[in-house]
Amino acid sequence: MLMRLLIVLAAVPVAVILHLESDTAVPLAIVAGLTLLSVLMPGSAGPALLIGYAALAMAFGDGHPLRLGVWLMIPALHLVHVTCGLAAVVPVKTRIELAALKAPARRFAIVQAISFGVAAFASFIPSGPNFGLVELLGLGALTVVIGVVALRI
User: Fold this and answer.
1) What is the pTM of this model?
2) Per-residue DSSP letter, 113
3) Of 12, 70, 93, 144, which one is least surrounded by beta carbons within 10 A?
């Protein structure tokens, strides 16, 4: 049951950020519904829909691509991903020892450090109409680096 509570706690910052960046309560309702689906069925498409919705809402939202909301959304969505992944394989009434969470916590920290490093580097790259390919290549490179590092841990 603790893992299900952690899913809700991980989704709260996502809901708050999206609500603050929107003029309506629609994003809040969508995140609440997807969070409920993720809590009830963490192995379903609910977590992926929640993460995808939040990422698209931030990408197409107004403001700078590396605004504070985006920086805060990165670890929040990753935490949703990790907690849902753990909740999907751990039975509901199982008591989880803290030692069992050591490896996932270490992977989480390493992936976040890499993500923030690449995002910090990206903040210095000039943007404009001619730099779309560079951003796409950077995103692909980030995905490869995170995948390789995560597989090695």
Assistant:
1) 0.79
2) H
3) 93
